[in-house]
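queue> holo job accepted (S-adenosylmethionine)
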Amino acid sequence: MNNLEVINYGSKILKLNNIDSYNLDSELLLAKVLNTTRENLLINLENDIKLNIFNNFLKLLERRIKKEPIAYIFNKKEFWKYKFKVNKDVLIPRPETEIIVNETLKLTNAKSRKNFLDVGTGSGCIILSILKERSNCKGTAIDICKKALKVAISNAKMHHLENKIKFVNIDIDKFNHYKYDFIVSNPPYINNVDLKRLGSNVRLYEPLVALKAGVDGLSEIKKLILKSKKLLKKNGKLVIEIGHQQIKFITYLLKKNGFYVNKICNDIQLHPRVIISTNIS
Ligand SMILES: C[S@@+](CC[C@H](N)C(=O)[O-])C[C@H]1O[C@@H](n2cnc3c(N)ncnc32)[C@H](O)[C@@H]1O
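queue> job finished
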């Protein structure tokens, strides 16, 4: 069989198994076992495939049929302008989370010397993307999950940022260090009912601790806001991602705790997704 025939074969199997991105995924998986890029694969469609390569392709196909996300199969995900290592201990970085990075960069400039705290760092994608672009800034990244921090540390090394960032394995509730100019966070915000409705790619593979936030989906955001009040300098900024139905309550909670709400950013589906506020108390 040649590359084209194998792609078509994989595509057909994935489609039969209800994988929406069947064509793209088949190409990506074949490129992976050939250790090449998708682009290179597509200009060499006539090349014949060796049996061992085909068998490796079948193994990856099997994983994808079971709904394992491509990012976990590849152990990497692109976020902002960079690649990050991911595994099942961390949430796969989402495009909407890039809003946090974009807005934070707008609030700083290349010469800024700010101190950042990232709460629930996971792969480290938020804080590392910011520090990559703001070379005079430094950061602390915390996560309740030790295994997630291992991934973040490895990403910090990969991006040569290990000297600019400290990692702490702790619950935000118990963290009492220092005063920060910025707190950035994409906390867990899925309520118990919605958790059961998530697609099997998320439910079966992504870490529960990165998603679940109690009966109302607000357990971790409440902790984060209360703690940020203490951890932020006066006029320090809090930039957080939220669930789109949480905007009213979170705006209320921020105001009640001495924050001024500066901006609410919508995601691509026009849902309120990131809220930027200032500690004015
Ligand atoms: C939604 S994930 C975000 C990961 C990453 N920042 C991103 O945006 O892709 C939330 C992260 O918060 C961590 N986490 C959950 N509860 C926490 C808590 N109480 N204190 C600190 N970290 C927590 C989880 O382990 C997980 O890595």
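queue> The first strand starts at residue 76 and ends at 79.
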